[in-house]
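@channel sequence for tomorrow's demo:
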Amino acid sequence: MTEQTDVVVVGGGVVGTAAAYQLVERGIETVLVDDGREGSATAAGAGIVSPPTSSRRENDDWFAFAELAAAHYPELISELEAAGIDDHGYKRGEMLSVALTPAEAETIETDRERARRRDASVEEITPAEAEAAFPALSGVERALRFPGAGRVDGAMLTDALGRAARDSGLTTVDGRVEEILTESGAVSGVVVDGGDRIDAERVVVAGGAWSGGFGDDLGCSLPVSPIRGQILHFDASDIFDDPAALPIVGSVADNYIVPWADGRIVVGATREDDAGFDPRVTAAGVQAVLDSGLRLAPGLADATFEEVRVGLRPGSPDSLPILGPVPGVDGAYVATGHGPTGLTLGPYSGAVVAQLIAGEEPAADLSAFDPARF
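structure tokens (generated this afternoon):
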């Protein structure tokens, strides 16, 4: 069987689904192909949207893009709500960044000065204020409050974008893209498992950690590798009266706690770059997250354990996204390599790719993310 479309998007995570949504909203016929494989990073991510507190905050190129990505969220959510989709999983709030030792407090000072230089909204609060805002904390040395943060349930947002896109004409195919076809230096389509072909003049590779497998098809290097993240979910409804009112909490030691309205508390996460495509829960991973989480918030010790989620995040050699047209292949685009910041950057990355395909000029400077750098 052979189908025909304008664009094929490979990968149904938040990046690919956002790209498909933006394309069909522009009237561009699009087919999204995804096989729902285990280990998707989108469903496992904690969903913190707060560029000034990210582990990548020191990189100016990443930060400039992340600021645009965070600003894109309210616009996107307004579009979904206008379409009658309210269960999108996004909520604005505040985030606390805390230090537990004098050495960590020095990092807090560096972060405070950096945030002020970038005009990011930040306020220093007392340790007592931090512990009052999130009562499970203890032993806080120093703390900052970032009022402009957000949290997003990646699976809910992706589902919401998919529904909105299908309402606007998106076609979805359950399957695995086995090959991207090219002819005379240009994309001509894809082959899906089972031998079905979808003809298209443009293809977006948004396959997350599995994106690197298409490098040979496109005659380029796509050095994307999986970074396993194990993240723990707890029911804390017996500990807090109103979990939805709690702030997100991040430690400068790079672990975090995200509360949700349904009583869940998410604690994460490991960053394992040697696990390969192995989405298992491991004893060492669970222990590492528990140790770091209870160090940060010992008051969570009596929370009810619910589940562990595992995501294989797509990492790149320089820890920056790989985003834009593929050199030497007309019609080929890549949107991957977001590492642990996929839920921060993903919806905007999808929008940027759609803009490029539609002949629009993105506001973001993409030069640092150029696929040609590899």
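heads up for whoever presents: The chain has a mean pLDDT of 94.
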